Amino acid sequence: MKRLTLTILFSTVVAALLLAASSAAAKPENCDTEPRPECFGLASVKASLSTNQAGAHPDIVTEFEVTTNPASKANAFGLKQPYGVTQDITVSLPPGLLANPNVVQQCTVAQLETSIQEKGEAGGCPNGSQIGLVEFYAYLLPKAFVEPLYMMRPPGEDGVARLGFIGGAFTILIEANLRSEGDYGVDASVLGASGQQEVVKAKTTVWGVPAAAVHDRERCTPFEAFQECDHAPKPPSEPRILQALTANPTRCNAPLQLRVAVDSYAGFGDEDSVPLGPIEGCDPLDFSPKLALHPTSRAAAEPTGLDAELTMRQEGTELAPEGDGEEAEEAERLAGERLATSQVRYATVTLPQGMTIASGAGEGLQACSAGEVGLNTRQTSHCPDASKIASVTIASPALSRPLQGAVYQRTPIKGNLFGVWLVADELGIHLKLPGEVHADPVTGQLSTAFNGTEATEGLPQAPVSSFELHFFSGPRAPIAAPRECGTYFAHYSFTPWSGRPAQEGDVPLTFDQGCDTGGFSPTLQAGSANPLAGAFSEFLTTISLPSGQQNPAGLRMTLPPGVLAKLAGVGLCEGAAAQSGDCPASALIGHGTVAAGPGPAPLWLPQPGRDPIEAFLSGPYKGAPYSLVVKAPAQAGPFDLGTVITRAGIYVDPETAHATVISDPLPQILEGVPIDYRTIHVAVDRPNFALNPTGCEQKQAKAILTSSEGATATATSPYRVGGCRALGFKPALSIKLKGGTKRGGHPALKAVLKARPGDANIARAQAALPHSEFLDQAHIRTICTRVQFAAHDCPAAAIYGKARAFTPLLDRPLEGPVYLRSSSHELPDMVVALNGQIEFDAVARIDSINGGIRSTFEGVPDAPITKFVLEMQGGKKGLLVNSTDICKAKGKAEVKLTAHSDKKLTLRPRLQSRCPSGKK
User: Fold this and answer.
1) Is residue 121 part of a domain?
2) N or C: at which end does the chain have fewer Cβ atoms within 10 angstroms?
């Protein structure tokens, strides 16, 4: 920020500089014997300061001389002819050596041009605009000239400052520009000097306090100077403004150099430097910055802008007392001894914990590259408007008005995602200051540092009286307020160029509105895009939370009964691919969107044109037969925070087939940016994957969420499909007995149930065998306990048969043993333990009716089973015993079936068996 005022430094005076020093420039060989244009160059450069005290206001004397031909004829002053005609002269001041063009009156070019007339004092430059003297020697001029040097009116928006004087009969302007491409020092240049004079050397003196009476004897108009000031000059007619024009650097013990460059009309140039310093006495320099911070919104847990104002006391204007007595002399002495304030070298502000980046600010945000901002150039920046996040106003005593600028989002780079540019392109200044923004990867706490560039070794050395920064407010404001009301404290640290310790302190920020935050009441919406019974449809799930509530950290989602997935033909994302998210397309089953961020306008991901959020089917995970791999690229605006991989197990209840999805902990912060979940939307949209139930009764989906602060909330969503009456229901059943047919025989049984694809699914099945068959309790060998069954540790002797179930939802049929398991009823239950891609236990209650055996399957899952085969053992292991010769009886079973659509069907299949003489 300060560097920009450094532009105001203004290259006051072409010669500007410091300690006396001199060095001779090397020139081509044989110039003394073979003079030629390329022998043009600098013969010497000298510079001195009247004081080396840091922050003092020295008279600056600078002198240079070009190379001359010793064989040429000397003029009246003994000057030899230069090897070339000087066209351009540039004096480069070291950073920190300053001049303030606003402390004196300013002269216009028109006034300067009339000042060589005899009545020049009336029509020329104001007396109070003189800031020093220029003494120059030209080969073709009849004498040396000592001319007044004036502060000129700045050239609009094209330069930092302008000086002027009359060289002989020519108006000479010195343009001061800032080295925006480097160290933000000032270059003072004379471009296109008169070729009719052949300048040999020049000496410039700039007064530290131009209005001081000590300079009154040197105040002459250009016309009077041409007459060699042969009369006593008059003091300024205006009241004296005893304010310092120049200021030494406030950095001590650092090498300083003044550089002079010259170019001839023949196209040859040279440059030379002289060391300056040492600058001493930095300890007495004042440095008392004050920082104020104000959020644009005082509502907790909402986006907010931020207004920051840094103020630093700078020297004021002093009016000299009337008269020339001791009082006036003392005032002048004090004006000269008053030291400049040290400038800021490093600036760091750390916001309170709880104030973080508001992710909603990423919506539509762009970034500005180093090329677009024009880093290390004097070009006007061309950052996209959509990359602007703040406005800047910088006031400096050296500026004619406050400088207006902006803060732009910097193009992110690895390890530095949130950097900014502080830019100002006004008044001939092209300020491009990088700022580093660090977001704590654990807490999200923000810290911003402005430390300058490698060339500047800190912020530009320029006086700044105030620096105002206004981060934009509104729904897309870049900062999120703390979740709870209260007064929080930001910490600042400002380090001066003087080398003294940094000034540190804390600044309060108060949030006392919208304090009803911190609840945890998520809502759930779940349903099929096409709610037609038995149809394939996208299944949509949306979880929402109001702004300011606790953040969800865990999710347990139970789907409505009967909502199933066709796993047949679906690939799996497993192994390293599941960890990286590089899953095959064959495993893709859905997509997601997430809204995150505080306030009414959260950030929606994925952004248009960015990588999608994808859900892939994976294999076993944490005890679940299947799982999800959710791949979420965190890309918003110019930021790419990487890819977030979240795993979730898909658990299937073995008795109800209800699916429950249990996620791993949800990520809470990415690269220091908190993820304030507002909406989580998942669409299981793989074609012919999600299958609707065939029952139209009211159901519900349920989600149990836990927050990052330990709260738990349950959210439900009603679910219903329609069109159940249109579904058919016509299953077929065959029952065969094999083995002994006589009374007392123990036949094996094989039952085959077939259902038509597209029919309603069976909800309840009750099968009663005829009186010819009943349960032989003497053959009940071993019964598996519930504890053993739950532990998958049933003894082999508890197995009494086997079963297979075929479904179009799986690649392979489910199959497994049939157990007798302990029950709360008189007889044990029969449990069909089906295994395969999933596990399912079909439980039947066994009882007797009218002396016969009956099995009832209640709560059969709403799943399409196209074929079910049940085989029970016979002989010594058989549970069935004939009560008569079954070859002489016409036994029929009675099977009552109820569909999930509420349709009912009774089947009376004949018991088939192999009888002697081929009779059945």
Assistant:
1) yes
2) C
